[in-house]
Amino acid sequence: MNQIFLDGESVTAEKVAQVAFDRVPVALDETTMERVAACRSRVEELVDTGQVVYGITTGFGKFSDVHISKEDAAQLQTNLIRSHACAVGQPLPIPTVRALMMLRANALAKGYSGIRPETLQLLVDCLNAGVHPVVPEQGSLGASGDLAPLSHLALLLIGEGEAYYEGERLTATDALSRAGLFPIQLQAKEGLALINGTQAMTSIGTLTLVQAQRLAKAADMIAALTTECLRGIPEAFAEEVHRVRPYPEQIGVAKNLRTLLAGSGLTTEQGELRVQDAYSLRCLPQVHGATRQSLAYTADKVSIEINSATDNPLIFLEEGKVISGGNFHGQPMAFAMDFLKIGMSELANISERRTERLVNPALSGLPAFLSHQPGLASGMMILQYVSASLVSENKVLAHPASVDSIPSSANQEDHVSMGTTAARHAAQVVHNAAKVLAIELICAAEAAEFVGADQLAPATRVLYDHLRAVVPPVLEDRSTSAEIEHVAERLLSGDWVDAVEQVTGTLF
Q1: Are 188 and 56 in contact (CB under 8 A)?
Q2: Average pLDDT of the segment spanning 40-44
Q3: Alpha-carbon Rg of the chain, whole angstroms?
Q4: How far apart are CA 107 and CA 123, in angstroms?
Q5: Statement: the pTM of the whole predicted model exceeds 0.85
Q6: What DSSP character marks residue 67?
Q7: Which string of DSSP letters, residue by residue, matches 122-158?
Q8: How many Cα atoms are found within 13 Å in the side-chain-facing hemisphere of 450?
Q9: pLDDT tens digit string along 454-478?
Q10: Which phi and psi (to 5°) does residue 239 adopt?
């Protein structure tokens, strides 16, 4: 298996997803470790000479004016981790924790944090060995970084707290021991270096972005299938229409739809059945394209954040400076996550409207609720209810977390980002959107049974066939909860998108 090198400069969202979901190993090269060691030497000089440097020879936050002796420098770091490891709530999913570990290691590998090479190596070894700290999801303000969640990560390295290993939840000591690893004693600056950063919000946000990008493509594919089943008019997707309103994302979605619908025997022309379609079909490029704009903005910010030094203070060897700054402040990611969840909420919103058109006989011309036994069997009736419920929940979650701030540390930290809350809510919005799209796909496939699945376009037929492999036609009423959940997971994984693209070529 290939490995991904962490150098603080070249990690991408796709690489994070590979490490998180596929467990691709990571490594540190010699040049990176030399840079880390040189920065560490500077920290040791500061401690030996007793210079006043925040978090190295002083306390933290409001205690920054309290001098810490050389003899207490190591204890200060251990106390920091223990006191700050007070996050609450459900544990973050293991893929998110893997991303968290990877991104923290990547930030430390930049060589501005002053951590010892052996401490960084232990973090990488834990990741590669599958020793995953239990990290509760709630408790971060998103400035001074993600202190509480990252402290639970740091606990693992000193043999405290809990960790998952080979499917078991164990004490950190037991998990390390079973993996053949040994805890370390933190030295000056190391505790602060491990927890002062934005990696909790960024790990959640990066994986959420990757899944949102997969869903955006899947949404175009599902909408194309729905368009066929409702005998839609593809002329609304004509190149001329979108050339005169030249948003690249709108143009890209319109081209996707033309490609996906090519060869369909079900679509109609203007005036054949109706002059124009409802907005949820006709305005697909405009709405889906706008969601793509929100994802493009988010992707730009994520690509910067995952390769940034976000702790404090930062040590600049070439300039000979140690500077206390504010790179731990999560405002850029907070805005990005809020924008992402708004965009994905609308992707789900318009999907639910298409589902309503599929199941409503007054709008579709199909049997009521796509029932094969109307009246006796309810068919897809309540699937639309579930979709509407999820869309409504997304509207609440889409409220921007980034507009809130509550001062902390006796007003020393008087403005915070709430970026981790934004990222957590964005993840929930994306998972809700996946279920909404799954419901539309299930309903569209059912509609295809009535209009003729043999007349589907080659691309949408691939999607239909993949759906039918796991969800047979609903000829008689049955519970579809597990099927909806399974289809949503397939959409989030991107597998079915890849299958369709084997027919169409890479879509926008």
Answers
A1: yes
A2: 94
A3: 26
A4: 12
A5: yes
A6: B
A7: HHHHHHHHT-EE--EEE---SSSSSHHHHHHHHHHHT
A8: 24
A9: 999 999 999 999 999 999 999 999 9
A10: -55, -35
| CA–CA gap between residue 15 and residue 35 (Å, rounded) | 23
Q: Rounded to whole angstroms, how far apart are CA atoms 281 and 350?
A: 9
Place of tokens 């799954």: 438
Over residues 351-375, the pLDDT tens digits come to 999 999 999 999 999 999 999 999 9
Contact call for residues 348 and 394 (beta carbons, < 8 A)? yes
Q: How many Cβ atoms are within 10 Å of 66's Cβ, its own excluded?
A: 11
**Catalytically annotated residues:** 54
Q: Which residues, 6+ apart, have CB-to-CB distance to 428 below 8 Å?
A: 397
Residue 370 and residue 450 in contact, taking contact as beta carbons nearer than 8 Å: yes
Helix (H, G, I), strand (E, B) or coil at 81: helix
Map tokens 């540390």 to a residue.
409
Amino acid at 197: G
What tokens does 18 get?
């590979």
Q: Which tokens is 486 given?
A: 């399974």
Give the separation between CA 461 and CA 172, rounded to whole angstroms: 50
**pLDDT, position 128:** 98
Question: Would you state the structure tokens that stand for residue 407, as one six-digit string?
Answer: 């001062």
Q: How far apart are CA 70 and CA 52, in angstroms?
A: 11
DSSP-derived letter for residue 90 is E
What does the DSSP assignment read for 410-425? TTTB-----HHHHHHH
Rounded to whole angstroms, how far apart are CA atoms 251 and 256? 9
Closest CA to 26 of 84, 95, 103: 103
For the residues of 187-247, what is the DSSP string, one character each?
-TTHHHHHHSSSHHHHHHHHHHHHHHHHHHHHHHHHHHHHHHHTT--GGGG-HHHHHTS--
Domains of the chain, each with CATH number or no CATH: 4-197 (1.10.275.10), 205-504 (1.20.200.10)
Give the pLDDT confidence of 52-82 residue by residue, as tens digits: 888 888 888 778 788 888 888 889 999 999 9
Task: Decide if pLDDT at 20 tops 80.
Answer: yes
Report residue 1's pLDDT band, with 50, 70 and 90 as the boundaries. Answer: low
